[in-house]
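ugh ok fine here u go
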Amino acid sequence: MASITVNDLSLNLALDRKAMAAIRGGGGAPWVYGWIQPYVRETPSIGPVVNLYDISNNFYANQMINTFQSVDVRNTGANSNINVSPDARSRNDTV
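structure:
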């Protein structure tokens, strides 16, 4: 593996204005620019901030179930056993 060693650098880490202006980079990572915002002092505003929210959640579920039952048993014989069990079921599902 190749390596580069630079031995003649100054131990003073501070760079002057000319040296700082000469530094060029490879473009960095432009997709992260702006994710940290600098501190900006609070400035007086013209008026208060008002947040207006209009949330309308309307839900209407109408149900009308009309059930009519009529049971009529005729012509039964003597001593007969008649079992009548009318049943009505209704359902309204709203999803």
